Amino acid sequence: MDSAAPPIGVGLLGLGVVGQGVYSTLQQKRVYYTERSGRGVAVRRIAVRDLDRPRGVSVDPGILTTDPLAVATDPDVVVVVEVMGGFEPAGACIRAALEAGKHVVTANKDVMATAGPELLKLAYERNVELLYEASVGGGIPIIAPLKRDLQANEIYAVQAIINGTTNFMLTAMARDGLTYDAALAEAQRRGYAEPNPANDVDGTDAAYKLAILATLAFHVTVRPEDVYREGITELAPKDFAYAKRLGYVVRLLATARRAADGLDVRVHPTLLPEDDPLAKVDGVLNAVAVDGDLVGRTLFEGPGAGPAPTTSAVIADLLDIAYGIAAGQPARPPRFPTTNACVQPIGSLEMQYYLRTLVRDRPGVLAEIGNALAANNISIASFLQMEADAVAGTAEIVITTHDALEADCERFLEQAMHLDAVVEPGIRLRIESHRS
Amino acid sequence: MDSAAPPIGVGLLGLGVVGQGVYSTLQQKRVYYTERSGRGVAVRRIAVRDLDRPRGVSVDPGILTTDPLAVATDPDVVVVVEVMGGFEPAGACIRAALEAGKHVVTANKDVMATAGPELLKLAYERNVELLYEASVGGGIPIIAPLKRDLQANEIYAVQAIINGTTNFMLTAMARDGLTYDAALAEAQRRGYAEPNPANDVDGTDAAYKLAILATLAFHVTVRPEDVYREGITELAPKDFAYAKRLGYVVRLLATARRAADGLDVRVHPTLLPEDDPLAKVDGVLNAVAVDGDLVGRTLFEGPGAGPAPTTSAVIADLLDIAYGIAAGQPARPPRFPTTNACVQPIGSLEMQYYLRTLVRDRPGVLAEIGNALAANNISIASFLQMEADAVAGTAEIVITTHDALEADCERFLEQAMHLDAVVEPGIRLRIESHRS
Q: Which residues contact B50 (CB under 8 A, 6 or more apart)?
């Protein structure tokens, strides 16, 4: 290795908070990183949206351009670091960079979730690397462990809390009894939620990240649209209190699991037993649990977002490529899936349920509901009357079930709306009570 | 890549439980691993201690030998997998294999803790790989994350529970009120503790593993003898009860931290706040927390021992080498530290303490002890009288302190033995109350 060799040219796509973090960290730690990788890296060109915007870092204006494609294909650039985010033009730039024989490091979950397999195949064909540790879980190492460190295993399941915004909100709702709206306002006030929080609260963000993890874990292409998803918008403060009484914690859990007839991939609010390690992951932390046939269950936890953790993951990937180049190794071209996932329809999965329903407070209600459940092959594990409203003549009940078919539960919920005993159908949550 | 190319020759050193796990897993998953790595691997020779011993795996007797050095240097062997354990002849075999230009995968904490830096340098000079993920934390990815995924960070601290035997015992002592002897017997009954448990219970095993982690995290050579260590043999059931009353959990914590005047590296029973993630790591699980300047705190948790998790880590390293060879990359030669750690003497560290002491149950005792503490610059954070024995005229007290110099605490403990108030000096435990 020759640390006196000219530094490796880097093209940076994006100079938002993450881009600024990457740029300034590369400047500040230049000597250390050169020592570590055996070869320096130097940012040669940077694509920005607006040349004149004031920034927190001082950059030679001569290397700035508003043309990301020009950066992605610049002859002086050996590694393209994409931190602009969003689908396009990021996707086109990554594609162009790979076509031009550049290594690519990206933090982009949108592009990797929707086009990852094709881009990995392109990188393989061009004999270059495409690394994307920062696309899931911020600074938590999870892509590389799935790709490399756990590769001897057949993976049975990946279960993850991979959306910090919703985990912060759920933690606040449970701890402080906040409503959904109040929890969202608090998350926005702290900068954890965007002004338009839809992608976070409806489970889209988690579904994208889960598609990336599941593709890696199961070696088949899992698309975001393969992932069943439900968000957290329907949860009420009382659900957290009731869950607690039953020994559960509510989490927006992303699950990818080998099921009997295909992959079970879904994101929805889930009741986790309070002693489950994932139930203890509070606030904006992320955590990913991986079950493998040899290793058993391993858990990876840490800050799942933010400029500094994302910078940690992006630069690790960049230094890894630099180290390979310094060692005279052109690339370790990526693996890519060659078949599409066979996803098991959620209706055919068996799960346990938490059903919170507002009923008339009169004799015979339990029998009526019990009959409807039995008619749909659902057996009751516990029945609790939570609150009665004497004036309205209603009572809130919570039923937990034994394992039942999701399709049966759906049919029950439709029928329940028409039962005389039922005032408001309420909410149905899924319970995760067993390990894969 | 050409998966039809002849498989890569592997020499296996050791056919104990781990060796059998590696061998049989490579057989069972041959097709899958060939697909993953782009090139098959095949065990060409195996070194065993006794040719005639019955084994749980069926192996062609023609590839067995009692000469590990012959396997390590066999011309048909490209990668040597060392799972024999212990210092020698394992160390000599690894050295001979590297000298002969073979890649090496090892699960050996003894060799890597005592000779890792020299062996990594030798591998670097010979342009071969030396991978050792299985040497710490069983199947939990921690070596690779420290080496690669967190490499952009300056690491501030590594805190770990890396001895499953003692963690099982401490969990049982806390939960079931077992004595040390009863907990050890239970661990032995379950196969978690060896007939001679000294290396586990006195902190030696954890100190070896910590030396490996600290060397990686801080890029300097940390030897096992650099690690201050205390075992768990002095702990009494009441310490767990008292700790719980104070909001703490007792763990054998391995800590490596940048301190003011060098590295702070130590293994000892530690009182952790009960809400610390490491306090929630129960039974034989292992966990490693890493604090970095960019990423913040990440946590890696899982089964820290056992044939299957160890096999997971060993084969991951092996497939990584195979993948590189299949990609036409001869090696990614390792980094190695070039300077020795400057270790800060424990006497100059500041910590908080838990002091459990048997005193005379009479007026003036607190003043006498308080004076002795004050004379040694130690200020009291809490004072609790736990139990009084009216017949003996004694009382058990527990004092927790604010940050104090370890040397001052040592001096106090010496003086306390001679105080009239003190019947038995009891035990001193360290409290981990702050994050690095």
A: B66
